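Predicting holo structure, zinc ion bound.
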Amino acid sequence: MKAILLNLIELQRIDNRIFELVELRGDLPFKVQNLQENIEKLTEENSEKSSRISELESELRGITSRMEDNTIKLKHYKDQLYLVTTNKEYDALLSEIDTMKNSVIESENKIIEFEQEKTELQELVKSNELKIESSSEDLKNSKEELSKSLSETEVEEKDLTKRRKGFISKIDANYLANYEKLKEARDGIAVSPISRSSCGSCYNFLPPQSIIEIKRNNNLINCPSCGVFLFWEEEEE
Ligand SMILES: [Zn+2]
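Done. Tokens:
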């Protein structure tokens, strides 16, 4: 039992140090990920909007050319008004002129609408491009910082991971599962030294009889309040 306790204590020490190393890197890994995702999102949006711009340009070319044709036709019909000889011909021509006029107005409105959409999209694409540029710069710097921070702790972290594997293989699966469950529930603490007659994790007072037993460091004793494994650390008190 004593051996299991000592292994659990050592495992907790290793995990505490790994936690510290991860803390040292801070939010850099998240920052890098967020920047990457943001750049991807903006790039995708720009590609979507750019293809809509191309679509609008092609529409605009079509409408403009139809409008020019109709404007010419309209002028032609107007010229013909002076040449017709019967009322019937005159009325038919007027009706044609009306239709042409409406068509030209419709085209003009469509052109205004499409030009406006195009301008808005172009502005959006441009502003996205600026954002992508500045995010890419940020990403480059954050990546450099992260890789520097990783290279500083890489050797120690590898060593810790290796030692962790060693200890895990020595600990019975049930205790290990218990340890991991506690660690998950208690913010990374599954094994804690007692401190001033209290649990070092939840700070609740422990009965004197438990303290005597814990000080022997012979048995696995759980805190009655929070459940972590307790042990006695000489230099702590
Ligand atoms: Zn406790």
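The mean pLDDT is 94.
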